[in-house]
Amino acid sequence: MKHLPLGSKAPDFSCIDVDGRKVSLAQFREKSFVVLEFGCMTCAPAVTQSTTYKSSLSNMIPKFSSHGVEFLMVYTRETHPGENIKSHRKFEEKIEHARLFKELEKVQLRLLVDSLDGKIHRKYGMLPNMVYIVNKESRIVYKASWTDAKEIESVLENLLLWEKEGFTPMDSVAVVEKYHFIYDRDVEEHKRVYERAGKRAVEELRAE
Prior knowledge:
- The structure is a single chain.
- This protein is of the alpha/beta class.
- The chain has one domain: 3-Layer(aba) Sandwich (Glutaredoxin).
- It is 36% helix and 18% strand.
- The protein contains 7 helices and 8 strands.
- Strands 2-1-5-4-3-6-7-8 form an 8-stranded mixed sheet, with helices on one face.
- It is globular, with a radius of gyration of 17 Å.
- The model has no long low-confidence stretch (mean pLDDT 91).
């Protein structure tokens, strides 16, 4: 993430979503703020912060979608694969996992599928559940090493307020950077996610 400083232009990308539609970051320029989360179904914080918690990104979409905010999630490589949810060997498997994730967890973010070798993920820093907010000028105004949906909600509220009040897009008050350690320790949710992946995923986590 260090190679993408706050205020820098967010790297453009193009890919498909789980419905096969083409998506690029550039299409939202001058139209929307973009919340860009990275994750997969074998990363428990990505699951909880994107969809299962009451304060998740999925649950705040109705609040912000009518105010020019797009919520995107890039499906990455499996963070903790197991016997049931394995590492992707083909792009088709990655699409299948992303679709399964959307179905099982009722993900409401627009779910994008990265290339098999993770081109988008590499551009943005390769962390398992990092998140960015990109403004309407395609510049990074918020980034965090782990997704914190509650914090993102607060940042979005302020970004929209500052826009309404006529602040410039890169005013210093609208820029936040977080390098916090993972704080999401919902034991039962983590257990559910990793047991679904398989015994190997659980054993790997215990060894960390």
